What does this fold into?
Amino acid sequence: MASDFLAGRNYQIQYQELEMDVVITRNKHAQLMVQPKWKEKQLQGELKENLQVMELPIQFKWNELGKSVSSVEIAWHQLNYTGSGYSTYTYDLLEGLQAGTNWTWMMQYQTIGGRWQWTWNYQGRKSPQHKAIHTGQMGIRLAF
It folds into this structure.
């Protein structure tokens, strides 16, 4: 990452990722996805901080053709971080999560078709030694 205004805050991250997608489709309505991931990030330069991440997200999607789409996801994240404290690059390396075991979850519902579209999103996350954080969003769209 490079800053045009703060030259002393430039840093470089070397990144490797391995991901596999397993998709099970039972019929035209239901789909189950498992996407195990492995990531390794290294902060380059004099600090030499490392992060290894294992993730296991599981998502279920339900599609009512021409009417609505619903999805639910839960994900386990194990972050092994060798670094010092909290800084801008630490937040970037950890992708907003904390070292240790983290959980994230998401629910989404969207109506399709007609002139009205409704969208409802809910996301949450739980990090070690922190309370769960919940975020919701709702949107309505009218096509003229």
